[in-house]
Automatic annotation (TrEMBL):
One of its GO terms (molecular function) is phosphotransferase activity, for other substituted phosphate groups. It comes from Winogradskyella jejuensis. The keyword Transferase applies. The keyword Membrane applies. The chain crosses the membrane at residues 38-71, 91-110, 116-136, 203-226, 232-249. Keywords: Membrane, Transferase, Transmembrane, Transmembrane helix. GO terms for biological process: phospholipid biosynthetic process. This is CDP-alcohol phosphatidyltransferase.
């Protein structure tokens, strides 16, 4: 099931794992596997990728980074085909991504002997890039297809949906706000009128999708297998210059 109607679909460079994710979700539809199980699967895949980076097994690391992206899409697909949306799954997914991103960059810092402050800056850049993309993407989905768990403004703890407990939602939402709250505030401050502005054209969303987590992990994978691991941290720092450009284009529409 697509997140957007046909007229507003765009080529999402970060969503290359979606076809495989749909196959996985269909295979698991009539089983006892839940979206949470798939989320745990992508956490495990991400941790294995980290071990491979530390062991200099870069082809294997790339494989598990791509698998992580596929499973990251598959948990949401499974929730849709089973019609079991949950805030628990939504926030667990985001919190896990945040932690794994930090672990990935720490591993890259270790094998490249990079500067710790540049590594920290690269991590902040990755998160800010992802926040901008998700901000615009959720606005688009909310306008044109609706979304039961993703919200443009994550301000209040949501009420648990059927099949989940409020205590789990409360804990995960607090973690989400702790990790993502500062980035949300920065992007909202830079473009607080985006939610009431014109619908973003498909070409702009495609351009923005280089900030999607899937594309970010793909770039890490490519640079690893090309023997260019020293360029990973500079890549994320330098591409963050585009944030101002994308926001300026959005405001000019």
């Amino acid at each position: 099931m697509s997140k957007l109607p046909t007229a507003h679909k765009f080529i999402d460079l970060s969503d290359y794992g979606r076809p495989a994710a749909r196959v996985i979700s269909k295979a698991l539809k009539n089983t006892n596997f839940t979206p949470i199980h798939v989320t745990i699967g992508f956490i495990i895949s991400g941790l294995i990728a980290t071990i491979c980076i530390l062991k200099n097994a870069y082809w294997l690391a790339a494989l598990f980074l791509v698998l992580k992206s596929i499973l990251d899409a598959a948990d949401g697909e499974l929730a849709r085909v089973k019609n079991t949306p949950s805030y628990t799954g939504r926030y667990l997914d985001s919190v896990s991504d945040f932690i794994l991103n930090a672990i990935f960059l720490f591993a890259i810092y270790h094998v490249t002997e990079s500067n710790i402050w540049l590594t920290l800056l690269a991590f902040l850049c990755i998160q800010l890039q992802g926040t901008l993309y998700n901000y615009y993407y959720v606005i688009l989905r909310t306008r044109h297809n609706g979304d039961t768990t993703s919200r443009i403004f994550e301000e209040k703890t949501p009420t648990a949906l059927k099949g989940e407990t409020q205590s789990n939602v409360n804990i995960l939402f607090k973690l989400y706000k702790l990790f993502y709250g500062p980035f949300d505030k920065i992007i909202y401050t830079l473009d607080h009128k985006a939610s009431t502005g014109k619908t973003l054209p498909n070409w702009l969303m495609t351009s923005l999708s280089i900030f999607g987590l899937g594309f970010q992990l793909l770039m890490i994978a490519i640079l690893l297998i090309l023997g260019l691991k020293e360029y990973i941290i500079p890549y994320f720092i330098s591409t963050s210059i585009l944030i101002a450009g994308f926001i300026s284009i959005r405001k000019s529409l």
